[in-house]
Amino acid sequence: MIESVKNIIFDLGNVLVDLDFQRCICAFQEIGGTDIAEIIADGTAESLFLDTELGHIDAAEFYNRVRKLGKNEATDVQILWAWNEMLVGVSVEKKQRLLALNASHNVFLLSNTNDMHWQKCANDFFPYLHFGVKDYFQQVFLSYEMHLKKPSLEIFSEVLSAANIRAEETIFIDDSAENCQSAASLGIKTFHNVNVNDWLALDFKS
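The line above is the sequence of Haloacid dehalogenase; the predicted C-alpha cells follow.
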C-alpha cells in the first residue's frame, strides 16, 4: 500500500497509452516511406522526434521533414496516420482507475510528447462515456508546450510549482528508470512502470 501520497503524476506512453513502434514502422512502409521507416527503426530520426517533443517545430514542418528524410511524396494525412499508428490506445480499465483515483487524489499527467500524438490521445483514446481528459487529470503537462523534456530536473520543478504540490506528497509513475531517478532526486516518490500495466496493481491509500 502506498501511503502519504496526495498527488499522482502519470507518464503517458507505456503507462496509460500502449505503444507499438513496429506498427508505426509498418505503416510508413505501407505509404511508401520505406526510407523513413528504416530511419525510425535505427534511431537516425531522433533529432526530428526531439524537435517535435520540445515544440521546436509544428506539424507542417514535421510532415515536410519526414518527406525529405523519407524521400517520398506522402500526403500530410498519410504521414499523420502512419505516425499515430505508434499509439494503440487506453484500456477501459485504466480510464476507470484514473477516474477513481481522481476522486481521492490530485492526478496529473506529465508526458514527453508532440502535438500530433497528444491530439490523437485526447480526441480518440481518453473519451469514455461522458468523460474526457479534464475528468482524469487536474492538470496536463506536455513537453511540446513547456519546451522542456524529461528527465530534466527543470520540468519536474516546473510541475511541482505550477501544480502547487509538495514533492514528498507526490508519486511519479513512468516507464523510464532515468526519468524516475530524476524525479526522485527532488524528493518525489517514484514507481518504475516496467510493463505497461504494472501500475494497476498499486494500492493507493486515500
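Note on the example: Strands lie at 7-10, 18-19, 87-89, 106-111, 139-142, 170-174, 189-192. The chain has a mean pLDDT of 94.
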